[in-house]
């Protein structure tokens, strides 16, 4: 019998050969034990027994997190992550069974790409996230800061003068990571251009504070202002427990337990498209307790090596998704 524990023991040993098998077993488990997803599949008249590939799995529209409690099984959440939302729109709510599992998964993901947290000082410039409750990013960064065991790791809110001083004074052999929301990094770059001497991570988002830029424009501005060769990007969201990262440039790389599937923009049931502009579907096997198969509102490109780019947002995604599910 499949259980959460049995799946947890498998997702971190997943590889290209075993991914499909594990994903299909999680799909069948969630199709039976997640009431909202089960109802969604019923509306689509999905024959679960006939699903044989990841591309054939129906992906649940991300907008469902705004209107329903998305839970596989019966449990009490340790934490509920919420999106920032925009004027006139309700926030997404991701009920998380175990905060510890989320934090350990975020650590595994980061260390898969960049090595131990203890190799770094984490300097976090995330004002818009710190100023509200329920941010998964703040929970992750707070954990990274604590687990780095660094006396200088910390949040800066709007204290850019202290951030400037710390960046110039830290010199103990550890690598510094300056991790910020886009608008705050741009503000800092304009006020204090410098040779940074640190790795720079942007997590996107102007939050209405500045004019929206393409990622290429953002990175060009930051590399010039801070005299760094590359800017790293993080792709994460309230509704996912895992993150993808770039190593500079535009292409995100997911960890082995996460996969990006491109869908046709006019027919969301047509999936597996590559090397063209598509809607982004995400398989996050770490989303065991909620839903591992999410149709996002992001536009992008998916490539044969598993990497992907984010190009923008789709229009009217909420309407197309929510109308399928009726109480």
What features would you highlight for this structure?
alpha/beta, 6-stranded mixed beta sheet, 5-stranded mixed beta sheet, 11 helices, 13 strands, 32% helix, globular
Please provide a written account of the structure.
- The protein is an alpha/beta fold and 327 residues long.
- 32% of the residues lie in helices and 19% in strands.
- It contains eleven helices and 13 strands.
- The protein has helices at residues 4-11, 19-33, 35-43, 64-67, 99-114, 127-130, 136-147, 160-169, 182-191, 215-226, 317-322, and strands spanning 60-61, 79-82, 93-96, 120-125, 154-155, 175-180, 199-202, 232-235, 244-245, 258-263, 278-284, 293-302, 308-313.
- The strands form three sheets. It has a six-stranded mixed beta sheet with strand order 5-4-6-7-8-9.
- Helix 9 links the parallel strand 6 (175-180) and strand 7 (199-202).
- The longest helix is centred in the N-terminal third of the chain and has 16 residues, at 99-114.
- It is globular, with a radius of gyration of 20 Å.
Topology:
Blueprint: H1 4-11, H2 19-33, H3 35-43, E1 60-61, H4 64-67, E2 79-82, E3 93-96, H5 99-114, E4 120-125, H6 127-130, H7 136-147, E5 154-155, H8 160-169, E6 175-180, H9 182-191, E7 199-202, H10 215-226, E8 232-235, E9 244-245, E10 258-263, E11 278-284, E12 293-302, E13 308-313, H11 317-322
Parallel strand pairs: 1-12, 4-5, 4-6, 6-7, 7-8
Antiparallel strand pairs: 2-3, 8-9, 10-11, 11-12, 12-13
């Amino acid at each position: 019998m499949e259980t959460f524990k049995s799946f947890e023991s498998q997702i971190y040993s997943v590889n290209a050969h075993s991914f499909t098998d594990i994903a299909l077993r999680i799909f069948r488990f969630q199709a039976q034990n997640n009431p909202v997803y089960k109802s969604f599949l019923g509306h689509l008249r999905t024959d679960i027994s006939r699903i044989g590939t990841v591309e054939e799995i129906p992906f649940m529209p991300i907008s469902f997190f705004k209107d329903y409690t998305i839970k596989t099984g019966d449990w009490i959440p340790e934490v509920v992550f919420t999106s920032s939302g925009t004027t006139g729109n309700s926030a997404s709510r991701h009920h998380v069974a175990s905060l510890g599992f989320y934090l350990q998964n975020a650590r595994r993901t980061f260390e898969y790409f960049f090595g131990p947290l203890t190799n770094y000082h984490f300097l976090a410039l995330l004002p818009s996230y710190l100023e509200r409750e329920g941010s998964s990013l703040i929970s992750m960064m707070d954990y990274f800061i604590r687990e780095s065991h660094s006396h200088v790791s910390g949040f800066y809110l709007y204290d850019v003068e202290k951030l400037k001083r710390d960046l110039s004074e830290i010199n103990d052999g550890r690598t510094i990571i300056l991790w910020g929301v886009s608008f705050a990094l741009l503000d800092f770059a304009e006020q204090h251009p410098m040779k940074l001497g640190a790795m720079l991570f942007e997590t996107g988002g102007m939050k209405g504070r500045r004019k929206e830029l393409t990622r290429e424009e953002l990175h060009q501005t930051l590399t010039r202002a801070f005299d760094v060769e590359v800017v790293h990007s993080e792709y994460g969201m309230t509704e996912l427990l895992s993150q993808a990262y770039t190593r500079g440039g535009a292409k995100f790389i997911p960890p082995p337990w996460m996969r990006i599937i491109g869908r046709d923009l006019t027919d969301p049931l047509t999936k597996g498209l590559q090397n063209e502009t598509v809607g982004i579907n995400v398989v996050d096997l770490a989303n065991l307790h909620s839903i591992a198969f999410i149709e996002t509102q992001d536009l992008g490109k998916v490539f044969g090596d598993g990497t992907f780019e984010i190009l923008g947002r789709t229009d009217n995604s909420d309407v197309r998704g929510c109308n399928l599910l009726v109480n």
